[in-house]
């Protein structure tokens, strides 16, 4: 008996669900570092313009040994930590109030939106004039930069909570305070987190700018210092440290979000 | 305890026009009675349910509980939109009302489990709403409403988003549950068969303005209404209601 010719049908959208192994993301970074190292070893670019990763690592080790690295890192972490926390807490609280009270919304929201577009670093000279040259102006400028994206996201998060859920809560006996705590806050949390992540990038930007303008210590000051001295290896230590910091910051927020929003 | 709706009227005033959604609404829901509101689209069923549920104020008239004996009566609503809290799992959703009533931990645990079992969701206590099918969500919504053991249960087209098979099964289940709990219920639907299947009395609303056209008592045993020997009577009630609604429904369709 003859077998009929067959044409098997295969899944033509298999690429949509293709699983990529974990090592792939490590592969990219390692590849880039390797390429960078090779370019430097072959002397294609002079070391002053682009120091080799190995040289940067050696200098970083030295800076750790002398304590210089951690001194600057902690100075920066202190500023960004306090500034970020301050801005985030104020942003969330005020955003919740704006979203909840129509009066404050009508009065305060136009103010928020008119200050929001100002690049906050432009306010630094003024703030230094007001607060002196200590830690305060740097912390304040970071807090300001964090406050605005957080307040605006929190506000729209509150506004986007489905009114039917508020009706449901009230029907089942919730007081006003419980409506805020059990419905409005969890309902706006995804938007709040979007704001917090946006603010994370802003806070690092402002940190470094402020430290470059007015600081003895901190990663920004360190980068500028070695830039002036044309010691690019040590400059690059600061730059890579910032990249690491930003990465960790984002991962931390992502972890917290997964922890707090398992229902997403 | 009975619920009385007295002379209720509702007019919506827009910038341009006034819409009289309800006028002259008078009826009562007796203790342990299942009352169904039917009417064509836009006749004011949801408006009336919202007023009875305390989520909207009437322009005129009032709604009150009678014979409460100083007890604060409580309400529960099963929403058409279901309205489960997405950040709470099934168990936490079901016990929301109990929590707000200040029930003890043990009571919350027991009653929560009891009503989850009743609607057949055991095993899904830890699931979040987005992990449930439409029918399961609606059952969780029903369990949430039942768990507070309300003096009046309000349901606004709870099954309208479900497919026909699920809908039939859910109607059967609702009837079984209701026969066990016997809660005073006001149920909104535009499905005539559903109304005849579930109701002790059917209130037929007409539109423009929404008024009560007729109140029909369904004189059939509460179980087995869909069986063969009851078919003739079932049809008779359905036709009677359809004849009352037909003209209005056609008008509603023409107006779009
Ligand atoms: N918030 C509102 N503002 C203005 N008019 C409204 C409002 N809510 C309802 N209406 C009007 O009141 C009438 C009754 O509306 P309602 O939602 O109660 O109808 P319904 O019987 O529930 O209809 P359906 O079966 O389509 O859900 C309609 O004409 C509608 O346009
Ligand atoms: Mg409706």
TrEMBL record, chain B:
CDD domains (UniProt xref): ABC_NrtD_SsuB_transporters
GO molecular function, one term: ATP hydrolysis activity
Keywords tagged on the record: ATP-binding, Nucleotide-binding, Translocase, Transport
Stored SUPFAM superfamilies: P-loop containing nucleoside triphosphate hydrolases
Residues covered by the ABC transporter domain: 3-232
Domain of life: Bacteria
Signal peptide annotation: none
The keyword Protein biosynthesis belongs to this UniProt entry's keyword annotation: no
InterPro entries: AAA+_ATPase, ABC_transporter-like_ATP-bd, ABC_transporter-like_CS, ABC_transporter_ATP-bind, P-loop_NTPase
Pfam families: ABC_tran
Database matches in SMART domains: AAA
Listed name of the protein: ABC transporter ATP-binding protein
Source organism (scientific name): Peribacillus saganii
């Amino acid at each position: 008996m003859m077998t009929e010719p067959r044409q098997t049908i295969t899944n033509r959208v298999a690429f949509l669900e293709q699983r990529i192994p974990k090592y792939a993301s490590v592969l990219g970074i390692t590849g880039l570092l390797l390429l960078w190292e090779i370019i430097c070893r072959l002397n294609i670019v002079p070391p002053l313009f682009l120091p080799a990763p190995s040289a940067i690592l050696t200098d970083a080790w030295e800076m750790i040994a002398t304590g210089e690295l951690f001194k600057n890192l902690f100075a920066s972490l202190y500023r960004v930590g306090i500034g970020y926390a301050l801005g985030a807490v104020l942003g969330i609280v005020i955003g919740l109030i704006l979203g909840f009270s129509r009066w404050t919304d009508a009065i305060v929201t136009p103010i928020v939106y008119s200050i929001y577009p100002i690049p906050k670093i432009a306010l630094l000279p003024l703030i230094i004039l007001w607060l002196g040259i200590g830690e305060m102006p740097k912390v304040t400028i970071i807090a300001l930069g964090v406050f605005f994206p957080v307040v605006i996201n929190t506000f729209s998060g509150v506004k986007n909570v489905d009114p039917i859920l508020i009706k449901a809560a009230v029907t089942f006996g919730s007081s006003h305070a419980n409506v805020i705590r059990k419905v409005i806050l969890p309902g706006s949390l995804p938007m709040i987190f979007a704001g917090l992540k946006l603010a994370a990038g802003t806070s690092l930007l402002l940190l470094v700018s402020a430290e470059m303008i007015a600081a003895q210590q901190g990663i920004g000051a360190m980068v500028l210092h070695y830039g002036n001295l044309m010691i690019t290896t040590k400059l690059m230590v600061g730059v890579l440290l910032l990249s690491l910091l930003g990465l960790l910051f984002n991962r931390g927020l992502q972890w917290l979000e997964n922890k707090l929003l398992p229902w997403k | 305890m009975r619920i009385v709706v007295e002379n209720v009227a509702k007019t919506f005033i827009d910038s341009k026009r006034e819409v009289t959604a309800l006028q002259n609404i008078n009826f009562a829901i007796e203790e342990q009675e299942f009352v169904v509101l039917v009417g064509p689209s836009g006749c004011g069923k949801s408006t009336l349910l919202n007023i009875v549920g305390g989520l909207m104020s009437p322009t005129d008239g009032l709604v009150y509980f009678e014979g409460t004996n100083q007890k604060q009566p409580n309400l529960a609503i099963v929403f058409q939109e279901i309205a489960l809290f997405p950040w709470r799992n099934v168990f936490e959703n079901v016990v929301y009302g109990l929590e707000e009533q200040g029930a003890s931990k043990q009571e919350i645990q027991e009653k929560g489990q009891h009503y989850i079992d009743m609607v057949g969701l055991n095993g899904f206590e830890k699931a979040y709403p987005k992990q449930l099918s439409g029918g399961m969500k609606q059952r969780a919504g029903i369990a949430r409403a039942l768990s507070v053991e309300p003096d009046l249960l309000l349901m606004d087209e709870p099954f309208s988003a479900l497919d026909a098979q699920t809908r039939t099964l859910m109607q059967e289940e609702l009837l079984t549950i209701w026969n066990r709990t016997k809660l005073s219920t006001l149920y909104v639907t535009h499905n005539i068969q559903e109304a005849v299947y579930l109701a002790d009395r059917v209130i037929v609303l007409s539109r423009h303005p929404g008024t009560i056209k007729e109140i029909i008592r369904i004189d059939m045993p509460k179980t087995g209404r869909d069986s063969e020997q009851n078919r003739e009577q079932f049809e008779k009630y359905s036709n009677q209601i359809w004849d009352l609604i037909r003209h209005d429904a056609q008008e509603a369709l023409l107006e779009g």
